[in-house]
Amino acid sequence: MAQKKAGGSSKNGRDSNSKRLGVKVYNNNYVIKGSIIIKQNGLKFNSGENTYYSKNYSIHSLINGIVIFYKKKNKIFIEVKNVY
């Protein structure tokens, strides 16, 4: 007779790949036109001046400039200021 019990197969151990969400360019950093500032699911951050949403709610820059984060009525907005 066998002295060891047969090892059962585990039903655990699965996980999805990370989606790499979050802030890509932080406050007071320079961005070029069209670059991604934030990747997000839903509207955690809101688009301000000189920025736009893509179809997956990522926020992109419309112009070359400096990224500014600010709060307005408990919402966080991102805008890009033009630099000369």
Automatic annotation (TrEMBL):
- One example GO MF annotation: structural constituent of ribosome
Tell me the GO BP annotations in alphabetical order.
translation
Alphabetically sorted, this entry's keywords are: Ribonucleoprotein, Ribosomal protein
Q: Does the keyword Ubl conjugation apply?
A: no
Supply the Pfam families for this chain: Ribosomal_L27
Highest taxon above the source species: Bacteria
Q: Where is this region: Disordered?
A: 1-20
| Gene Ontology cellular component annotations, sorted alphabetically | ribonucleoprotein complex; ribosome
- The protein, known as: Large ribosomal subunit protein bL27
Give the species. Candidatus Carsonella ruddii HC isolate Thao2000
